[in-house]
Amino acid sequence: DAGVTQSPTHLIKTRGQQVTLRCSPKSGHDTVSWYQQALGQGPQFIFQYYEEEERQRGNFPDRFSGHQFPNYSSELNVNALLLGDSALYLCASSFKAGGHRGTDTQYFGPGTRLTVL
Amino acid sequence: QKEVEQNSGPLSVPEGAIASLNCTYSDRGSQSFFWYRQYSGKSPELIMFIYSNGDKEDGRFTAQLNKASQYVSLLIRDSQPSDSATYLCAVPGYSSASKIIFGSGTRLSIRP
User: Fold this and answer.
1) Which residues in chain B are contacts of A102 at CB distance < 8 A?
2) Residues A54-67: pLDDT tens digits?
3) Which chain B residues contact residue A104 at CB under 8 A?
4) Residues contacting residue B110 through CB under 8 Å, at least 6 positions apart
C-alpha cells in the first residue's frame, strides 16, 4: 500500500522564481492538504483540495496556488519566491468521510525542502 | 493567544522513565486531538488521536484529554532513545473539519 509521495525531495531556487511541488495521496484517499513548516515551528495550513477544488485556505498570499487532478494528485505552485518561503512543504492526504467537527485523519508525505537564495 | 500551545523544550528524560508532554488549546469546541511525532528532517507521523475525555492507551503511549481544562497530554512509558523527537500537538481548525492547527512542538530527548 503506497503511502503519500512528494517530489522533488529538495529544491533550490532564487528570489523571484516560481516553483511547483507535487504530491500523490495515499491509496484510497481523495483529499490533499498542503502545509508549510518553517524551522523550529509546527506545520502551517496552506490550503486543501477535494474534488479538484480548493476547499479551505489558510493565511497565505495569492502567490500560493494549487491544483488537484482527477487521479487526486495535487500540485502546489509558489510564484515570486521570497527568502521567507524557504521551508519544508508537506502534503497530507485523507479520506473525506464527511465528518462534521471531527477531522479525517491526515497522513503526511516525506516533504519537499525548498531553499530560496 | 495561540490556538495550540506547547512548551518548546527540550525536555530531557532518562531512559526507562516516563516522559510527559503537555498541550493546551483555545477553542472550547474542539472535539478531536492528535499527537504527531517528527524526527529531525522527517515529516510528522501520527501516533495518537483522542476524542473523549479521559485516557487512551496504545502500547507505551497514553493520551489524556481534559476538555474542561482545555488540556491534552501525551505520556510515554519506558522511554527509549528512539523516542527522541519533536512531538506536535494538533487540533482541527474552528472553521473547518479538515484543517489542522499544530502547536510548535516539544523537543524530547531521552538520555541513556
Assistant:
1) 31-32, 51, 92, 97
2) 988 999 999 999 99
3) 97-98
4) B12, B13, B14, B15, B19, B79, B80, B81, B82, B83, B84
Pull the grid cell for residue A65. 496556488
pLDDT at B29 (0 to 100): 81
Sign of the Cα torsion A6, A62, A44, B58 reads negative
Nearest to A104 among B44, B98, B105 (CB): B98
Q: Which residue has the cell 495550540?
A: B4
- Hey, are the CB atoms on A103 and B92 less than 8 Å from each other? yes
Residue type, A84: G
Q: In the A/B pair of chains, how many CB contacts fall below 8 A?
A: 79
- Please give the C-alpha separations between residue B33 and each of A81, A96, A101, A107, in angstroms, as whole numbers: 34, 17, 11, 14
pLDDT tens for each residue of A19-64: 999 999 999 888 999 999 999 999 999 999 988 999 889 999 999 9
